[in-house]
Amino acid sequence: MLDQIKGLHHVTSMAKDARRNNEFFTGKLGLRRVKKTVNFDAPDVYHLYYADGAGTPGSVMTYFPFPNIGKGRHGVGEVGTTVFAVPQGTLGYWEKRFADEGVKDVKRETRFGEERLTFSGPDGDSFALVETKDDPRKPWTKAGIPADDAIRGFHSASLRLRDGGATEELLKFMGYEEVDASGNVKRLAIKDGNGADVIDIETLPGAPIADLGAGSVHHIAFAVEDRAKQLEVRKALMDTGYQVTPVIDRDYFWAIYFRTPGGILFEVATNEPGFDRDEDTAHLGEALKLPKQHAHLRDYLEKHLQPLEG
């Protein structure tokens, strides 16, 4: 069993409208936009990052907003619900805020003894807030949400699968342990992780196969401390039979990717170098930052990318 992985690093999803996406996460959820850059493979499309104040791994939600993308279809073979942690006793605040802000599909429920508030993003994305106790992570507080109520980072994510057995074995190999089960949901967690260290496997044998589009999670990334730990994980996965990409420089972390038995795209990302490598922490996410291979496109992109504010 591996011990290098400490929980989630980021979750990357698809959207249709960049401005609406930015307003939802920075306005309604009160997260900080920590990076405004572009898709490495499609530089005319943004890659937007939202997180706590520093872009701490385990708090980072990222989006590719493709203007002409169709709506995704939820089903099996995808990340289901992305779950954020909030302090105990704050769901009432969020229920009122969501009602005032017009957030859709808000519903309170309990899972594994935890109070949750489920809701939808602008493209039908599946989200939840979970009340957690004594979370030491510091929230972003300059978006008008009181520190005592604000999001701390990720709590967990769920994986929707027709048969969760092989993916459960993979997660256990990656350092997760089963901690609970209820109905068709099995909960796994990493002991002494980074706070974003829970995965729920939802087994849905009769559900349709998911179809990627706006509102879908593109991939889910797990955090390791540095490149040396990442290489250890890569070798172990390859020795086990997984087809893993070479290490790819994503400017703010190094990444490797592989497909799970259930078809979900997993990434293992480094905590280094971080989102302040090309911007002062006080000004994260303000300027358009371009990968060096796309720097020559700056004039074109600044004219043609949709303004995020205004």
From TrEMBL:
The keyword NADP does not apply. The lineage of its organism: Bacteria, Pseudomonadati, Pseudomonadota, Alphaproteobacteria, Hyphomicrobiales. Keywords: Dioxygenase, Oxidoreductase. Transmembrane segments: none annotated. This is Glyoxalase/bleomycin resistance protein/dioxygenase. PANTHER family: RING-CLEAVING DIOXYGENASE MHQE-RELATED. GO terms for molecular function: dioxygenase activity. The keyword Oxidoreductase applies. Residues 7-132, 153-271 form the VOC domain. It comes from the Bacteria. PROSITE patterns: VOC.
